[in-house]
């Protein structure tokens, strides 16, 4: 999550990052030391599969209360102005909040759910926003946990996953869909999407995702009530980067957007109006890495005010696509994009003091389906992860 380019949620310095990087097909970039336990793809897949039979791993975390006295006393901070440098040179203090603690009247508040986690690769709230699920890779094993959005002890949902990354929760809150890049099949491109009860149980592989190399994931409900998974990947013969749509519960998966201009699409967010937004983790053949709006074979990069070499995460609520990233000063920021115009708005967020400083990069962002709540994962400069709940912004979060 601290790569020098947009990262597909790969914390190179965290335990297990080497095995996950091998499974995803990435190598360390300049300035990022590969994990010492990185091994051959065959070894990584063999060992990761043992997670199904080994004892469930405990969460590697020291969970904190959602409202920590230390952060409240410190007053936190607000969004960093995207002043000079990066893509947004010249915008100055646009959208910057006044100094001081607390949430401005037109801004949002970020509260810590859990801190000092490691190996978090994805998170998603329940539809009502009261429970947060997160995937974690420690060593070369993966698991899925849940915890109350108000803070508290985590609960193991499943240890039957190999290398879980992105995830979403069904509209009724009963099913979790998770990308498992370690659930591969010999002769096919790695990884699948798996489904399991939110209360725990044995993950079920959605067979029509085999060979499609799934990465980013989203869920949308059409006007007739049908549920669809949208995910980034590639065809079974290594075709151009593709966004697929799969009708639940079992498919099949159909190509929705195929663009040779994209290199490694990662996070995916589908607006109810049909617009597909995605993060291209390595940039395209015609533009630097960033957030793209895609239709058919056209992928257009949005001129958002984000530093060009920091991770980005996406989420959406009706009428809004939210983008978490970092500004020129490398402090976290949150944008709202209007799907009708692709215009951005910088949201004022009162960050806890421990997460609003430069060096904190997003490692996941997701919106609750039926509540005005965002959940965000931030990777700190020390390699640890913090999970936060964001409420109160006017753009779909009241």
Task: Write a compact overview of the structure shown.
The chain is mainly beta.
**Beta fraction:** 35-45%
Q: Span between N and C termini?
A: 30 Å
Helix amount: under 10%
The number of domains: 1
The CATH architecture designation is: 6 Propeller
The tally of strands reads 25
Structural class: mainly beta
Q: What are the secondary-structure elements, in order, as H or E? A: HHHEEEEEEEEEEEEEEEEEEEEEEEEE
**What does the main sheet amount to?**
5 strands, mixed
SS field, number of helical segments: 3
CATH class: Mainly Beta
How do the strands line up in the largest sheet? 22-1-25-24-23
CATH superfamily: TolB, C-terminal domain
For the CA atoms, what is the radius of gyration? 19 Å
Mean pLDDT: 74
| CATH fold description | Neuraminidase
Low-confidence stretches: 1-58, 60-76, 80-105
Quick one: overall form?
Answer: globular
Any overview of this molecule?
This protein has one domain (17-391): Neuraminidase, CATH 2.120.10. The protein is 6% helix and 38% strand. It contains three helices and 25 strands. Strands 22-1-25-24-23 form a five-stranded mixed sheet, with no helix packed on it. Strand 23 and strand 24 (374-379) form a beta hairpin. Helix 1 (17-24) packs across helix 2. Residues 1-58, 60-76 and 80-105 have low confidence and may be disordered.
């Amino acid at each position: 999550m601290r790569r020098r380019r947009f990262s597909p949620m790969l914390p190179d310095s965290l335990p297990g990052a080497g095995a996950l990087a091998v499974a995803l097909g990435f190598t360390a970039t300049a300035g990022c030391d590969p994990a010492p336990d990185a091994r051959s793809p065959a070894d990584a897949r063999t060992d990761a599969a043992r997670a199904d039979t080994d004892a469930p791993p405990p969460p590697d975390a020291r969970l904190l209360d959602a409202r920590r006295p230390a952060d409240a006393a410190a007053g936190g901070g607000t969004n960093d102005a995207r002043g000079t440098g990066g893509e947004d040179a010249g915008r100055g203090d646009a959208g910057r909040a006044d100094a001081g603690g607390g949430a401005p009247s037109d801004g949002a508040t970020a509260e810590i759910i859990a801190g000092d986690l490691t190996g978090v690769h994805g998170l998603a709230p329940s539809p009502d926003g009261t429970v947060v699920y997160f995937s974690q890779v420690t060593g070369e094993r993966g698991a899925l946990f849940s915890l109350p959005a108000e803070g508290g002890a985590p609960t193991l949902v499943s240890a039957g996953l190999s290398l879980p990354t992105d995830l979403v929760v069904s509209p009724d809150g009963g099913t979790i869909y998770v990308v498992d890049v370690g659930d591969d099949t010999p002769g096919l491109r790695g990884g699948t999407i798996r489904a399991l009860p939110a209360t725990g149980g044995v993950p079920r592989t959605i067979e029509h995702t085999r060979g499609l190399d799934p990465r980013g994931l989203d869920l949308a409900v059409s006007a007739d009530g049908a549920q669809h998974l949208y995910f980034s990947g590639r065809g079974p013969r290594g075709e151009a980067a593709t966004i697929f749509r799969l009708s639940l519960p079992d498919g099949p998966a159909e190509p929705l957007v195929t663009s040779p201009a994209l290199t490694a699409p990662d996070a995916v967010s589908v607006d109810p109006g049909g617009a597909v937004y995605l993060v291209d983790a390595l940039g395209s053949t015609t533009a630097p890495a960033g957030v793209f709006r895609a239709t058919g074979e056209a992928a257009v990069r949005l001129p958002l005010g984000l530093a060009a070499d920091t991770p980005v995460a996406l989420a959406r609520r009706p009428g809004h696509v939210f983008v978490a990233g970092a500004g020129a000063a490398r402090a976290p920021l949150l944008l709202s994009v209007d799907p009708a115009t692709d215009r951005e708005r910088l949201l004022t967020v009162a960050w806890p003091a421990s997460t609003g400083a430069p060096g904190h990069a997003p490692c996941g962002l997701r919106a609750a389906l039926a509540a005005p709540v965002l959940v965000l994962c931030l990777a700190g400069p020390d390699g640890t992860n913090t999970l936060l709940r964001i409420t109160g912004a006017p753009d779909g979060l009241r």
